[in-house]
TrEMBL record, chain A:
Name of the protein in its database record: Protocatechuate 3,4-dioxygenase subunit beta
Domain Intradiol ring-cleavage dioxygenases: 47-227
Pfam family, any one: Dioxygenase_C
Example GO biological process: 3,4-dihydroxybenzoate catabolic process
TrEMBL record, chain B:
Keywords annotated in UniProt: Dioxygenase, Oxidoreductase
UniProt organism field: Deinococcus aquiradiocola
PANTHER family linked to this entry: DIOXYGENASE, PUTATIVE (AFU_ORTHOLOGUE AFUA_2G02910)-RELATED (PTHR33711), PROTOCATECHUATE 3,4-DIOXYGENASE ALPHA CHAIN (PTHR33711:SF9)
Disordered: annotated span: 1-24
Family note: Belongs to the intradiol ring-cleavage dioxygenase family.
Pfam families the UniProt entry points to: Dioxygenase_C (PF00775)
Polar residues composition-biased segments: 11-24
The protein's name: Protocatechuate 3,4-dioxygenase subunit alpha
Record domain Intradiol ring-cleavage dioxygenases: where: 64-92
InterPro entries assigned: Intradiol_dOase_C, Intradiol_dOase_core, Intradiol_RC_Dioxygenase, Protocat_dOase_a
């Protein structure tokens, strides 16, 4: 990379930091261009989490916060693979999720949306990817959610995903959306991603094979980590 | 009475015919719910305690603290700060759940909107590199996270290749100021998102 090069925004698939339709970005986006990392300085690994920190049920929001019954809403199974840019599985990686309940309400203290809380639901989950890079989340489909970005603004139904790769530059927090959601067409967070193909990758697919008959609908959501350490030209004979 | 189910599509992946990196989205205002223990629902934290109390793991115990400021100089109260660092010997830990795992997570929904990371001072990870913390920042208002680094004011940072890739007049935005207190060393650094003394951010995507 030419060290004199300067980037006004992350480029690639990511949204620019300044995205005026998303009002909060205006005072928080850097004005200065990003400085390229000198070659080699990004190669220092990433946190590796053990299964010992996870409890049974951590991956299932329909059971992990029960007080006196089951949470309300449409049950969903979300399954997917965590992959690197070469399509290789990322194994043993931590995924953390959080979301609103079926009514579109977060349990967060700052959420004052006039919709009911669910006493049996916090909407948080954690899981590790397996040997094939697969994870499975069991949850409740979140409701749409109003916010103050502009008049009559509504966030599409979404689940927040936080993931780690094998390099800290792969660290990613993103959101998963549901197919066919009419609110996507109006959402400055989703539309902030310039490339329509990039946006589409954040929309899960309904997958009948993942449904649990009589119990839950199924969605597939695969995630690909970028990070600047990988090049399409590196030796791919080993996938450790 | 059951009927034959319809045939399944060949590939139901959201990446079918569209393989490529997944874009970042904002952590939003409610990330504590999923990422910060003890706020809502999470029982156990990851990265919440960087050094196991009482652990004999070598290294000077230090605190890094400061604020995150927007373009008007207003403190941002919903920022997420993550660090990834080497141990005192300059080695990046193999396991985040070791006595020292190298990974930390802090936020600014605190009194005075200050973040605080209680860690140990890293060593130099390679010849010529000054000790540093690698920092990942997310917040409401950032669709895409930002990457920066923190250096220490009492170290010789003059030969560090990352700092030397930064224009002279901006390097100070990455150097935390040491203060020796009765409770040990405290390093102070504010992250300024834009404008005067804007923090240097790196292109690491």
């Amino acid at each position: 990379m030419n060290h004199e090069e300067r980037h006004p925004s992350p480029g690639g698939v990511h949204a620019p930091h300044l995205s005026p339709a998303y009002a909060s970005s205006v005072k928080r986006a850097p004005h200065e261009r990003l400085i390229p990392l000198p070659h080699g300085l990004h190669d220092f690994g990433a946190p590796v989490f053990g299964a010992g920190r996870l409890q049974p049920g951590d991956h299932d929001t329909t059971v992990n916060a029960r007080v006196n019954g089951e949470p309300l809403g449409e049950r969903v199974v979300v399954r997917g693979r965590l992959l690197d840019r070469q399509g290789r599985p990322v194994r043993g990686a931590l995924i953390e999720t959080w979301q609103a309940n079926a009514a579109g309400r977060y349990v967060h203290a700052r959420d004052d949306h006039d919709a009911p809380l669910d006493p049996n639901f916090t909407g948080t989950a954690r899981m590790l990817t397996d040997e094939r890079g697969e994870y499975e989340l069991i949850s409740i489909r979140p409701g749409a959610y109003p916010w103050r970005n502009h008049h009559n603004a509504w966030r599409p139904a979404h689940i927040h995903f936080s993931v780690f790769g094998t390099n800290f530059t792969q660290r990613l927090v993103s959101q998963m959306y549901f197919p066919g959601d009419p609110l996507l067409a109006y959402d400055p967070v989703y539309l902030g991603i310039p490339d329509p193909k990039g946006r589409d990758r954040l929309v899960s697919r309904f997958d009948l094979s993942l449904t649990r008959p009589g119990w839950a609908l199924g969605y597939r959501f695969d995630i690909v980590l970028g990070g600047d350490h990988a090049t399409p030209f590196e030796d791919e004979d080993h996938d450790d | 009475m059951t009927t034959e189910p319809p045939p399944l599509p060949e590939d139901t992946s959201n990446l079918a015919g569209n393989f490529g990196p997944s874009p970042s989205q904002t952590v939003g205002p409610y990330f504590h719910q999923g990422l910060v223990p003890g706020v809502q629902g999470l029982q156990a934290g990851l990265g919440h305690v960087m050094v196991t109390p009482g652990s004999p793991v070598p290294g000077e115990r230090v605190t890094l603290t400061g604020r995150v400021l927007d373009g008007d100089g207003v403190t941002i109260e919903d920022a997420l700060i993550e660090v990834w660092q080497a141990d005192a010997n300059g080695a990046y830990p193999a396991r985040a759940d070791a006595d020292f795992g190298g990974y930390g997570r802090a936020h600014t929904r605190t009194p005075l909107h200050r973040y605080a990371l209680h860690t140990l001072k890293p060593g130099s990870a390679a010849p010529g590199l000054a000790p540093r913390l690698n920092v990942w920042l997310g917040m409401r208002g950032l669709l895409t996270h930002l990457v920066t680094a923190v250096y220490f004011s009492d170290e010789d940072n003059s030969g560090d290749p990352l700092l030397n890739a930064v224009p002279d007049h901006r390097r100070h935005t990455l150097i935390a100021r040491r203060e020796d207190t009765p409770d040990g060393a405290v390093y102070h650094l504010d992250f300024r998102m834009q404008g005067q003394d804007e923090t240097v951010f790196f292109d690491a995507y």
